[in-house]
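Honest question from a wet-lab person: if I give you the sequences of every part of a complex, can you actually get the arrangement of the whole thing, not just the pieces? Trying it with mine:
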Amino acid sequence: MANEVCFKNMHLDRPWTLETYQSSGGYSVLKKILREKTPAAEIIDELKTSVLRGRGGAGFPTGLKWSFMRRDEPGQKYIVCNSDEGEPGTCKDRDVLRYNPHALVEGMAIAGYTIGASIGYNYIRGEFWEPYERMEAAIEEAKAAGLLGKDILGSGFDFDLYNHLGAGAYICGEETALLESLEGKKGQPRFKPPFPAGFGLYGKPTTINNTESLASVPEILSQGGKWFVDIGKPSAGGSKLFSVSGHVNKPGNYEIPLGTPFRELLELAGGVRNGRKLKACIVGGSSVPVLPGELIMDVDMDYDALMEAGTLLGSGGVIIMDDTTCMVKVLENLSHFYMSESCGQCTPCREGTGWLARIIHRVEKGQGEMADLDRLEDIAEKVGGNFYKRQGGRTICALGDAASMPVLSFLKHFRKEFEYHIEHKRCMVRS
Amino acid sequence: MANLRDGLEKKTLTTLVSSKAIGRIDKWIDKYPLEQKKSAVMAALRIAQEENQGYLTTELMNAVAQYLGMPNIAVYEVATFYSMYEHKPIGKYQICVCNSISCMLNESEELFHYLQERLGVKPGEVTQDGRFSIKEVECLGACTGAPMVMIGKEYYENLTHEKMDKILESLN
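Yes, you can. This is the full assembly:
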């Protein structure tokens, strides 16, 4: 039960070509929908049945999101794909773009049809040149085959799809920052409401979905929502891509059913490197709370089970740390990241991420004091709320929460290591 | 950033970059609604930068602004917000070393120091022959190939110091 959706064609030769994609049934769903003029509500119902949840990290149900669009109201509407993958530990969308670009093209065309959008933009991070070229080639192939453009296959449905390239900014993965960026501005998140479905790109109704979510749509509609939900869990259908990185023998992207035990995923990735012990794992990209090895081993990889275990599924970036890892050093790295990537718009985040990074840096260097640990928790809560108390952050977007969760979770599970750094002015693990 | 007064004589973009580059920029403009030319600013800055040995000048930014009908300040905002725009000379090959968690767990720090030693430059400096510069960057989204670097438009993954040496030798 692996590689059934986004990685379905992974074993085939040159899976990114139109020929290969069509050889396994590609574009048949789009063609059928256009031929039969399938009502949009039917497509949305099928997606709701599938319980496809947004693969970018927030896990919002895709069918529900599409239903927010007032399809029949006049005026331009847009479908936007978020291929601005940049959550540390996550590199799955890159492989969807490189190896299955036509699934994304077809998924976006179907989305456009469903929500009433005749134009789509795929926002790819600026560093992803190779994936961008694959997508460009796929769009050209689809156009030449009459699968994009005006009056597709004589159906009367117009759909133009364009790639947009970013230029280096993690924050543009936040959907409203992405829209600002697409409009030619700094990528600073917008205050919500209004939500993009009412006021999106250029002020027009817009739906934004993640790459993996949109690329999953053709296969879901081809096999049926029931088939998809049965692969995963009733609360979260399907298989999902997990990027496994860090101290493992076979790092890579693995497509497995939601609900697969963590232990099996770790085995797929060849286990912890050099036969060492699993010390800790961040399962959903760098923003989600860390878990000690002994707490994650028997947890299932789905939204509910991970929430119960004290973390989040997030983007599916599984970062493995063995027992040689200094957790202070890792937190220093993560906090530096959020300081660098804060867009500077909200004071708590702009100032707070800097304070967090600087204090953790001095603790790592053996120059901290015990009061620093309470200080860190205090600042983290003031920036991004407290995951454990189910309190959200105090900023426009979730970057503040993302900066706070690592700090609070590292201190919760590995406080002793921080205290050792302060007391002995050196590392407990790497002496 | 250079002195903002530098660009006051207002050279147009067409005199500053090749006609091929203008053609590429125009293709980007065509992707967006007529009244939304400024959506092409990121692409225009990238292309202008490529035409100027990899970095932007005030003159270039002003010319991009004029070409897209934007206020200069709006272009400066974009050009300084995103990390891929450069504002001073870089090497012919700029080596962007990913420093984020998966790479760090796979010794990217050591790789970063090795590169500085081997090339004799610190981040932000250019080697005397003008060939190389080094930059530390945040997650490049290739975590399963850690440690990794980006040089120009290429990703190089699963690096060792030996592999890095070979890559440097292959670049001319």
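Two things worth pointing out. Strands of chain B lie at 93-98, 132-137, 149-151, 154-156. Helices of chain B lie at 13-16, 19-29, 41-51, 58-68, 72-81, 101-105, 108-119, 161-170.
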